[in-house]
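Two records follow; treat each independently.
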Amino acid sequence: MPIPEDELEFRFFRAGGPGGQNVNKTSTAVQLRFDARNSPSLSDPVRERLLKLAGARATQAGEILITAVRFRTQERNRADAVERLNGLLDKAMIAPVKRIATRPTLGSKTRRLEAKGRRAEVKAGRGRPTLD
């Protein structure tokens, strides 16, 4: 579920790393800011899961910050940041499956107890012999 462009805020700045003189002149690094807490595009459960998945990338105000400096062009870094946000959203859209509690069957209980008994007999037989 892609987020509308008007809800995303981009800030461009100079990146370090390889790139020669170009890296000193151009602002190729991208910081994407998405206000998840106030976004009308998200339902409440998805919003909570998204903020939990974001971890350290989420601010106290409920904004998600993604910094992309992987590529040497601004366009590719912008696309990378949006792609990473969409990946987080895809994970947040999946609702966790509730575990249904079940009880062990009578047969599995008896098999477990019989195996315990056999194991106890084997271990008991390992002791020192008595002088009867």
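The next record belongs to a different protein.
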Amino acid sequence: MKKIGTILFFVFIVVAALGFMEQPEKRTVPRKKAFIVPNGWPQPVYDFSKNPLTEEGIELGRQLFYEGQLSRDGNISCGTCHQQFGAFNNFDHPLSHGIDNSLTTRNAPGLFNLAWQKAFMWDGGINHLDLQPLAPITAHNEMGETIENIIQKLRKSKTYPRLFKEAFGDPTINTQRLGKALSQFLLTMVSSNSKYDRVLRGTDSFNLPEKLGYTIFKSKCSSCHTEPLFTDFSYRNTGMPLEPYLQDIGRMTITQNPADSLKFKVPSLRNVMATFPYGHDGRFFSLNNIFEHYRSNMQVMANTDTLLKNKLPLSNYEIGQLKAFLQTLTDSVFLRDPRFAAPGTSPSATRPLDLHN
């Protein structure tokens, strides 16, 4: 009887052990993060119901944004071209630099307030934020990698399976989750705390040049650079002649409609003092260059925007006041926010923001 009891005891231990081993892996529950729309702003166009923000998803996205392994040689990350002190633009370079010391054909724009954008790239060629990173990742002159290789590298990593599990509940790593994680981080990049914003909230006030510049801005610029985002996200021909070497025809590349020749997305003027050089190919190195283009150097074409058929008359006095107002669109809080800096570093915002303007 004692022998039978001993056997039953060991059988119980084995069954219990097997039962423990067969228990499904416990799923982690990511912590939800609310997306706050600034007062007076329109509702975002991004569908958060299909990719709810979580603390873990945002952190995973931040890690991926600064991850060199997303490129073929392990040296180029999203953050290489999108630098925080330049409002996440390609600071100080007309054209972005890619893998193997190659040059791209465009200037990397600033990254902020992306939840309000329906399409991305200078020509609007990508219609969803979750898909946007795939273009630079796979471009031969940017990050030069394949999605298949990236997924394999992340799966073999010591840390990413854990980070994906924390963000999505299990360690599955695939293209969809890669895009969603990057989106979660990018969506948190909201720039809404400039002096302009404080004036609208009643906690600050414009000085006289800023106030005069704001009046001129509303009269001559706001049709395209619509408040509060300071862009209407349209595509317009602003009289910039075709650059012979680049041969970039803009929106027409996507639509194949000749009427869209040399049309590019209207950029936001938020943080404009930090996002030089300007234009899709960085041809304007200062605001003075831009103002001179609009008042004197435009090449009016058949499909130049109707608002600019007579160019844009601006006196030196008006330009001075406009520059004073545009200074108020600099969000120094955003440029120095540690939440957006590379993991383990402090954000660098020490360069003069208006050095070339």
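Discussion point: The two ends are 95 Å apart (CA to CA). How would you locate this feature using only the token line?
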